[in-house]
Amino acid sequence: MDEETFERVRAVVASIPPGKVLSYGDVAARAGLNSPRLVGRIMAEDTADLPWYRVLRSNGTVAEHLRHRQLELLRAEGVLADGGKIPMSRYRWRD
């Protein structure tokens, strides 16, 4: 993967406002990519300085290994889970 792709994904994630979320597919589309998996791979490499927790699976579920922390960070921004899922229709960022 090239540096430009990496930076496009980082820019999209950085732009998600507090209290809003995007799916991996949403991030891919906004970054001009056709693979949500590529977004996941990029985010696994380096997003410590980004609001990584605002990116979810398309069904509103969070990363299982980060579940507690991710839900905690989202809750602090007013994004509330319902049955362990984030209601995407309510919190998805639309600009």
Quickly describe the structure.
InterPro entries: ATL_DNA_repair (IPR052520), MethylDNA_cys_MeTrfase_DNA-bd (IPR014048), MethylDNA_cys_MeTrfase_DNAb (IPR036217), WH-like_DNA-bd_sf (IPR036388). The chain is mainly alpha-helical and 95 residues long. The protein has helices spanning 3-15, 24-30, 36-45, 67-76, 88-91, and strands at 22-23, 55-56.
Q: What series of H and E elements makes up the topology?
A: HEHHEHH
Number of β-strand runs:
2
Which stretches of 5+ consecutive residues score pLDDT under 50?
none
Question: Which structural class do you get from the secondary structure elements?
Answer: mainly alpha
Strand content: under 5%
| Measured distance between first and last alpha carbons | 28 Å
- The count of helical stretches stands at 5
Q: What gyration radius follows from the Cα positions, in whole Å?
A: 12 Å
Helix content: 40-55%
Strand order of the main beta sheet, please? 1-2
Any idea what the shape is?
Answer: globular
In terms of quaternary structure, what is this? single chain
Largest sheet: 2 strands, parallel
Mean model confidence by pLDDT: 95
